[in-house]
User: Fold this.
Amino acid sequence: MYEPAQLRTFLTVAQTLSFTQAARRLGLRQSTVSQHVRRLEAATGRLLFTRDTHSVELTEDGEAMLGFAGTILAAHERAAEFFAGTRLRGRLRVGVSEDFVLTRMPEILETFRGEHPEVDLELTVELSGILYEQLAAGRLDLVLAKRRAGETHGDLVWRSSLCWIATPRLRIDAERPLPLILFPPPAITRARALDALESAGRPWRIACTSSSLSGLIAAARAGLGVMAHTRGLVPPGLVPVPARADLPDLGGVDFVLLRPESARPSAASAAADALAKAILTGGDRLHRPAGGL
Assistant:
């Protein structure tokens, strides 16, 4: 038997790769988080994380536990909701970053729709910057997007890093401006890429601009240039640009859940709470490719 509290703690540590961040998100002491992980490791008889003073990484057994933990918690919550006799209703307007188009995010939404059939789910897939604008304008109830530089609000779902990616066939000429494949403004990855190149004094030119992730991927696969992308979400057919290309570091990236600052309790806020919980529980699926891709 695996304790739901321990599984929830495990998933949070796996998503944040930080015992400190996990404790902050869960409202627990860091020692309690460590205790939950130790007890889960004792129950499985396997080491789930390798950790030192500087980093936390999943082991191979920890990667396997991701899927099991999410499934167990989802079943536990479905049972609790069934016997509690509560049914969510109303309209829920959700915004999701383009980054998750090729992941298993649809599975999370499909499961939510099956569990809450009386919630009218309206999905908007856009650039993170545009989702921020729509949230501020009151047109969305819940947003899953990149956190903007310098900001700290939002519930952390997943932490990764940005990297330069391209087709393996692309050859980068250090003597010529770097060809870029970019989202249009106000894309967060666009701003990060241009700032990094400007700071490094690296000349660049725009080879392709598209508001569609599929369009950018097609351009990159065709060898038009390089694009900044989340390291954990590199699409098939593209690879991180080798270090010998000497491109500037793009830093880390946080994906967070955001809600309107002045949201009042309502049917939409209750539905948003339920979907937020489902995303946080199944966050490991957000950096796995969708089936068949």
User: Anything to note?
Assistant: The mean pLDDT is 88. DSSP finds nine helices and eleven strands in the chain. Residues 63 and 171 are 34 Å apart (CA to CA).
